[in-house]
Amino acid sequence: MGSRASTLLREEEIEEIKKETGFSHSQITRLYSRFTSLDKGENGTLSREDFQRIPELAINPLGDRIINAFFPEGEDQVNFRGFMRTLAHFRPIEDNEKNKDPTASEPLNSRSNKLLFAFRLYDLDRDDKISRDELLQVLRMMVGVNISDEQLGSIADRTIQEADQNGDNSISFNEFIKVLEKVDVEQKMSIRFLH
Amino acid sequence: RAKEKERKKERDRKRRRNVARRASSARKEGKELEDRPGREERRGRKKRDKEGKGKGGEDERQEEVKNDTVAKTLKNFSNENTRKLEQKEIEVVGEEDGDTEEKRKNGRSEKGGKREDNGRGETVEKKQKKKRVETSAEHESSEEEEDEEEKVGEEKPEVLSPEELEKLKEEVDERKKLISTLRGKPWPMRKKLLTLRESHEFVEKYEGALGKGKSRKLYAYKVMMLKKWMKFQRDFENFKTACVPWEMKIKEIESHFGSSVASYFIFLRWMYGINMILFGLTFGLVMVPEALMGRPYGSMPRKTVPRADEANAMDFAVLWDFGGYAQYSVLFYGYYNSQRAIGWLKFRMPLSYFLVGVGTVAYSYMVVIRTMARNANEDGGGDNNSFNFSWKMFTSWDYLIGNPETADNKFASITTSFKEAILEEQESRKDDNIHLTRFLRVLANFLVLCCLAGSGYLIYFVVRRSQKFALEGLESHSWWERNEVNMVMSLLGMFCPMLFDVISALENYHPRIALQWQLGRIFALFLGNLYTFIIALMDEINLKREEEEVLKLNMTIWEASLYNGTLGVNSTAPPITVHPADIPRGPCWETMVGQEFVRLIVSDTMTTYITLLIGDFLRAVLVRFLNYCWCWDLEAGFPSYSEFDVSGNVLGLIFNQGMIWMGAFYAPCLPALNVLRLHVSMYLQCWAVMCCNVPQERVFKASGSNNFYMAMLLVILFLSTLPAIYTIVTIPPSFDCGPFSGKSRMFDVIQETLESDFPAWFGKVFSYASNPGLVLPFLLLMVLAIYYLQSTSKSYKQANLELKKKLQTQNEENKKKTKMAALKAAMDLEEAQKAWSEAPRQQRNNNASQQSYTGEKNTVTGHLVSSFVFVWYLKI
């Protein structure tokens, strides 16, 4: 697998991906071999079915939404670059990245980008607000039929009541950031990619 | 033709894409400006215009080259026909910036303009002001700057990848620069020195990586070792979590049954740990030395089964009752010899026995109190955040779960935690008639007190009666009269908790508090049990001691007769050896006490297991399978499945532990037995809970480290050490069995050691130190210190609580304020809309309304401005 990856992925491309996502050379080749192993159609792109084969995503209540996040709108294939771009959100923040000057362009794995990624999972209609209905959908996915609709509604109401600051009965991205202020997002939304 | 069309489309897209790229590259430069609205926007746009123009042509060319490379790679990926390839090219282009697609959808009006002014990219900018993650474009624009630094890492060392090397090189250069310019920096001297030293160290450390030959190899080696070390640490952490016993089982139970049930199992595990240590102490310092180095079985009367019992000493029934060979073994007090030092190690057996007895109790006190203190700290310091539900909502799923079973558990646990949270909410909101609840609570407590008093009197009455019967001789009474005490006790233990449960329904407490009340009440009831047991035991001890006195007298007569019989025949012969089994011996009340405790523990364990199997398992099986052929729904209706009884199980555990503490001095095998019992019940109960219980209807949140359990444990510990200490201090040990035989009191062993094993001055110092004139002031001082510490901690706690409250109210106030402001703004907006929609007709009113608004706050005027704009749009 590894030999195949190294032959198919050219140096310039790796360089580009490196620039864009911040992954290291070896990480990219490793992830490429993973990519090709996921690619059952062997056409250089991944489809939704390919992602569904990953057990972690298959059993995740929000799995479909995460898979959707890999695909640009309206497409049902994703190539290696798109794949890497989405994965870059989960790259851990390294120490020497923290104290870089803030004027440089924000890397994909910054805290706010990580949070935005999570926010998008809940914001289905992309109006930059999580509404009550969207919360209810998520809740139903997470608890199934074990809790009555009425109770779910009260949970959603409570959640909005907690997080909402400007009284529009929905959670905006800023409010979302505020809610997760004390959560260690940098650490929790990171995957340990092997070097 | 179709091909042609597609080509065209593709070209179109490419062009648009280039525009987007350029725009974003320009945007990047003016990024911080763009974030600020209004005034600065104009300035930013000017700047961007300039840059956009300057870079325009160059960028375009570069972008085209890039596109080609993408296409080429695709060729490499798959060798398919050109038709397909083109399709893919389109795909790639589309994916590279999903924005273009979107733009085409929402921005039809701007489309034409975009095509025309390719070079400037100004119109696109407006569009992009909308918040959107512009991943690819932003990063590619910064490529040019980084390109120059690229060339550094041409020669790769074995381990470092080129980009790591790059970074390092950059950093080292930075540090070097810092060192050279440090002199001119306006920092205090201390900081300068510190940075200088740090920088030097850094340069020294990492320059090796960039150099050649040995230093680089060394560095590579170092980096490799560091990576290995980190991996090892990670593995070690994983290993550590895997080593926590029963963690997975408890987690699984917690996810299905909630934290209250899990708190019992955590308590059980904690207890298991304690007992392991107690077991280690008694086993390692008492049982093993005696078995290895003490005199062997059969060498002395106390180590031999008496002749009368020899025939059936190996019978199972006798052994099960801890008689026969079990009684004359290291398991019980009586087996131990009073020889001061045993074996080649000169092991001080009696001293060790005494110290271990004291040590187990002292250790238990220490552990319980320390755990309580730690729990109290956790309770006080816990931050109950204001985003309880939101956190549950957004952060509860563990995205690394890949195993369907674990996923099921996680689903269950999320559901449970939501249920718990709902319950907490309901409880905190509940405020019905306060007088009625108060009245009901007083009534309930009164009823419970009556119950307790009644059962207390019943126990007292029965015990007195049984003592009378015992004096008269048991044989003349019926079966009921002989077993009256036991029967009454178990009946009370069975029905009173149910009664309390019914009564507690009156009180309408939060289930967590209700559980505590229930626990407290049953605890009081069980104390009665304990009391009867101790009284019965004391009676028995007194009886045995009387017996002993009689026997001592008989003994001398027996010895005398023995010697008289033999002396007459042959006076020079050595004293005749009588087999130790034939020598008469005392009743040895200590062994009797130990046996009682062991029997109690065993029977208690059996009862627990059997009730578990019958009450839970059999019931579950019956309900499950009889349900097919029954006239009503058994599962949902009357018998149903049982719930896990947290209060009963916790109390069982606590009282069991009390028995261990009481009896461990007289039966060193008790901790071992208890470890066995806890181990088995851990597995058995885990299985029973998962297989035949249903979760409680009202799942409530309980902390895993419950201080209430600990407090009860402490009370029991105190109550159980009292009788043990009483017997040790006041009752003289038996004359012919146990490590303290021949002494007038058990604690004399300390004095003896002091006299013979320590130098004379030590004994003197000790005797001075134990002088009441010295001890009393010391005690007083300690009490004062405790009082002082306690009061200070109380005040700290209060301050903490107040601060927390302050913070919370402040938070809420802020939230309210912003909410109010937003609401007000919205209302104003509406009014303004109304006013302005009527504007064409009523011009005069206009002025007045405007005047009234100008007096408002800044925020409101801001919203007014927006409302004007809004109305203006409407008009158009």
The percentage helix of chain B is: over 70%
Lateral arrangement of strands in the main beta sheet of chain A: 1-2
Counting structural domains of chain A, the number is: 2
The Cα radius of gyration of chain A reads: 19 Å
CATH architecture of the largest domain in chain A: Orthogonal Bundle
Q: What spatial order of strands do you see in the largest sheet of chain B? A: 1-2
State the secondary-structure class of chain A. mainly alpha
* CATH-assigned homologous superfamily of the largest domain in chain A: EF-hand
- Count all strands of chain A and give the number: 4
- Topology pattern of chain A, helix = H, strand = E: HHHEHHHEHHHEHHEHH
Largest sheet of chain A: 2 strands, antiparallel
Mean pLDDT of chain A: 78
Greatest contact between two chains:
A-B, 76 and 74 residues
Oligomer classification: heterodimer
> Which strand-content bin applies to the residues of chain B?
under 5%
Descriptive overview:
The complex is a heterodimer of chains A (195) and B (876). Chain A is mainly alpha-helical and 195 residues long. Chain A has two domains: 11-89, Recoverin, domain 1 (Orthogonal Bundle); 107-189, Recoverin, domain 1 (Orthogonal Bundle), CATH 1.10.238. The longest helix of chain A is centred in the C-terminal third of the chain and has 15 residues, at 149-163. Chain A has 13 helices and four strands. Chain A has a two-stranded antiparallel ribbon. In chain A, 31% of the residues are buried. Chain B has 876 residues and is an all-alpha fold. Chain B is 75% helix and 0% strand. Chain B is built from 32 helices and two strands. Chain B has helices at residues 2-29, 31-35, 39-77, 82-96, 98-106, 108-116, 122-128, 135-141, 143-147, 162-181, 189-210, 214-243, 247-257, 259-293, 316-320, 324-327, 349-381, 388-395, 404-429, 434-472, 479-482, 484-507, 511-567, 589-626, 646-663, 670-692, 707-730, 748-757, 760-769, 772-837, 843-854, 858-875, and strands at residues 642-643, 693-694. In chain B, strands 1-2 form a two-stranded parallel sheet. In chain B, helix 25 (646-663) runs parallel beside helix 27. Chain B is globular. The model of chain B is unreliable at 22-158 and 843-876 (pLDDT under 50). The interface between A and B is large, with 76 and 74 residues.
